[in-house]
TrEMBL record, chain A:
<protein>
    <submittedName>
        <fullName>Peptide ABC transporter permease</fullName>
    </submittedName>
</protein>
<feature type="transmembrane region" description="Helical">
    <location>
        <begin position="135"/>
        <end position="156"/>
    </location>
</feature>
<keyword id="KW-1003">Cell membrane</keyword>
<dbReference type="Pfam" id="PF00528">
    <property type="entry name" value="BPD_transp_1"/>
</dbReference>
<feature type="domain" description="ABC transmembrane type-1">
    <location>
        <begin position="96"/>
        <end position="285"/>
    </location>
</feature>
<dbReference type="InterPro" id="IPR050366">
    <property type="entry name" value="BP-dependent_transpt_permease"/>
</dbReference>
<keyword id="KW-0812">Transmembrane</keyword>
<keyword id="KW-1133">Transmembrane helix</keyword>
<feature type="transmembrane region" description="Helical">
    <location>
        <begin position="217"/>
        <end position="238"/>
    </location>
</feature>
TrEMBL record, chain B:
<keyword id="KW-1133">Transmembrane helix</keyword>
<dbReference type="GO" id="GO:0055085">
    <property type="term" value="P:transmembrane transport"/>
</dbReference>
<dbReference type="InterPro" id="IPR000515">
    <property type="entry name" value="MetI-like"/>
</dbReference>
<keyword id="KW-1003">Cell membrane</keyword>
<comment type="similarity">
    <text>Belongs to the binding-protein-dependent transport system permease family.</text>
</comment>
<feature type="transmembrane region" description="Helical">
    <location>
        <begin position="301"/>
        <end position="327"/>
    </location>
</feature>
<protein>
    <submittedName>
        <fullName>Peptide ABC transporter permease</fullName>
    </submittedName>
</protein>
<feature type="transmembrane region" description="Helical">
    <location>
        <begin position="255"/>
        <end position="281"/>
    </location>
</feature>
<dbReference type="Pfam" id="PF00528">
    <property type="entry name" value="BPD_transp_1"/>
</dbReference>
Length: 298, 334
């Protein structure tokens, strides 16, 4: 058996060498794309804000001072105050934590489950493929926000359940993507070679099929984070996500909308924060797609 | 074509069936006692037992499912817990309101999106191209509910140009025939009210149209750029054909397939986005109907509302699929 084991390692190594060059090429082309770099910059900016929110925020996230309710932006309160006299700037900073957290964790969940199901469907084929593909079809037959609402209607409104709902609704997007990738990779010669030397299915899937499908997954995941952030904010806005007094951007919009005439700044800044974060992920995702997977462009 | 249409229709059956299962389990999957969740912590035992009976939750699930599907097939969408009225009787006005709003939004999105994409491709790398594509990038990143709120604040509350909520001038309503107010006002010959209905439609439909418009503009541009580099377009230009005809006649016809796909997919986004837009603009559509039902834990309405929107969505995608074949004879289905 040592001969076989050696061959397996050789195949692994060859693959890694082959795989390293497209990544390097991709990085080079990403670096040249100014718009994508701006997107990455915006994302980095919000990540830093999210990490250091407690240090950066001039006031506590839930500190109330009713004597200064709905005051316009000033030197003391850069983004003004809301109906409870809370500092909107501080709340927007803390909101970055929630939105990025929901975006990253929900998409990570969708990627893991989507890849798992997609690989099984694509690799094993037959009835299991039909079953999984039909489940994906059914999930995609619902407009995504409605499916999220249905999930939250079952689980009950909370930020955590909104996160679960967003993770669930995005599973078929990743599942379908990885399934089609597996179907094409499966036909490659090195997979046949791996099988010929007696490599186990698990090892083939995780050492060869998955790494060869990672570029489109990374691209899709970056764009999915943008959508997930908007969906979480939408659920928060409808009262089905974050609950008071959580400083979630969508919830902040919903709570402030009745004061929009007296205090438009209460609505302006949380919305701008959502838009900028989403724009950052979209620009970065577009750039990654051009760099890593030009075929996906159209 | 006919065989393909029939096959495509048959393929809808498992998807529709699967959707029904999902919707059926919305109420049954609630952790704990659904009657308790619906009625709240203070509910009496009798009230809970009565509601469980009314919802048919005492039977085994497969019996419940059989009754549910049988009901759906005979057009029975259940009964609203809030109004005690059959949902099929009260849903049409809401559905019509959403259809009117979505249709207008889609027309705006297609008209502006396709034209902006064409002009951007025609004058590639011009200031128009750059401006349009930057706006499109912002457009796909903007949350529809925030855009709606900002529009409402600027054009209605601050400037007072347009009404902020509702579908018509409620002080002077016209007789309802189809529930599509653009048509009803015309039937009644009330052109003043027709104008009012349009004024009410502008803000919500623009908010709803923004994302699809941005996506359509981007895809039209890239699709047109590809087509305009092809040989037959060069030949057409070499023949001295006017650029307008080259672009709008020859190129557009060949660039339309990816645009059509995106339009089909955007309908889902539009119907989903309707729930947010309708909440902001007090638009009495199906999105708002579902939103209010959530507040009242009116599960039968939530179920039927979601089922109807999803059904419309897959039917529209079916139509788009069939349109491909009609537009592009090169596409063959086996």
């Amino acid at each position: 058996m040592p001969v076989l084991a050696k061959r397996e390692n050789e195949i692994d190594q060859l693959q890694q060498e082959e795989a390293s060059s497209p990544w390097r090429e991709g990085w080079k082309s990403f670096k040249k794309n100014k718009v994508a770099l701006i997107g990455a910059g915006i994302v980095l900016f919000f990540v830093i804000i999210a990490i250091f929110a407690p240090l950066l925020a001039p006031y506590g996230v839930n500190d109330q001072e009713l004597s200064i309710r709905n005051t316009p932006p000033s030197f003391e309160h850069w983004f003004g105050t809301d109906d409870f006299g809370r500092d909107i700037f501080s709340r927007v900073l803390y909101g970055a934590r929630i939105s990025l957290w929901v975006g990253l964790v929900s998409v990570a969940g969708s990627v893991i489950l989507g890849c798992f199901l997609g690989i099984i469907a694509g690799y094993y084929g037959r009835w299991i493929d039909t079953l999984i593909s039909r489940i994906f079809d059914i999930m995609l037959a619902f407009p995504s926000i409605l499916l999220a609402i249905a999930v939250v209607a079952v689980l009950g409104p909370s930020l955590q359940n909104a996160l679960i709902a967003i993770a669930i609704i995005n599973i078929p997007n990743f599942g379908r993507l990885i399934r089609s990738k597996v179907l094409s990779v499966k036909q490659e010669e090195y997979i046949m070679a791996a099988r010929a030397v007696g490599m186990s299915d698990g090892r083939i899937l995780f050492h060869h099929v998955l790494p060869n499908s990672s570029a489109p997954i990374i691209v899709q995941a970056t764009l999915a984070i943008a959508t997930a952030i908007i969906e979480a904010a939408a659920l928060g806005f409808l009262g089905m996500g974050a609950q008071p007094p959580q400083a979630e951007w969508g919830k902040m919009l919903a709570d402030s909308r009745q004061y929009i005439i007296q205090a438009p700044w209460t609505v302006l800044f949380p919305g701008l924060a959502i838009m900028l974060t989403v724009l950052g992920f979209n620009l970065m995702g577009d750039g990654l797609r051009d760099a890593l997977d030009p075929k996906m462009k159209n | 074509m006919l065989t393909y249409t029939i096959r495509r229709l048959l393929m809808l059956i498992p998807v529709l069936f699967g959707m029904t299962i999902v919707v059926f389990f919305i109420i049954r999957a609630i952790p704990g006692d659904p009657a308790q969740v619906i009625l709240g912590q203070q509910a009496t035992k009798e009230a809970m037992a009565q509601l469980t009976e009314k919802l048919g939750l005492n039977d085994p699930w497969y019996v419940q499912f059989f009754h549910y599907v049988k009901g759906l097939l005979s057009g029975d969408l259940g009964e609203s817990l809030r109004s005690s009225a059959p949902i099929k009787d009260e849903i049409w006005p809401y559905l019509a309101a959403t259809l009117e709003l979505s249709l207008v939004a889609m027309l705006i999105a297609i008209f502006i999106g396709v034209n902006a994409g064409i002009i951007s491709a025609w004058f590639q790398n011009s200031w128009f191209d750059y401006t349009a594509m930057i706006l499109a990038l912002i457009g796909i990143s903007i949350p529809v509910f925030w855009l709606g709120l900002m529009e409402q604040w600027a054009f209605s509350l601050e400037l007072g140009w347009l009404p902020s909520t509702g579908r018509e001038n409620v002080r002077d309503p016209v007789e309802v025939v189809t529930n599509l107010y653009l048509i009803d006002t015309l039937i009644a010959g009330r052109f003043d009210q027709f104008g009012e209905v349009i004024r009410h439609l502008i803000l919500p439909s623009l908010a709803l149209a923004t994302i699809p418009m941005a996506i359509i503009a981007r895809i039209t541009r890239s699709s047109m750029l590809e087509v305009m580099r092809s040989d037959y377009i060069r030949t057409a230009r070499a023949k001295g054909m006017r650029m307008f005809f080259v672009v709008y006649k020859h190129s557009l016809k060949n660039a339309v397939i990816p645009v059509l796909t995106v339009i089909g997919l955007q309908v889902g986004l539009l119907l989903g986005g309707a729930i947010l837009t309708e909440t902001i603009f007090g638009w009495p559509g199906i999105g708002r109907y579902i939103y209010e039902a959530i507040g009242f834990r009116d599960y039968p309405v939530i179920q039927s509302g979601i089922l109807i929107i999803a059904t419309i969505f897959i039917l529209i995608n079916l139509v788009v699929d069939l349109l491909y074949v009609a537009i592009d004879p090169r596409i063959k289905y086996n």
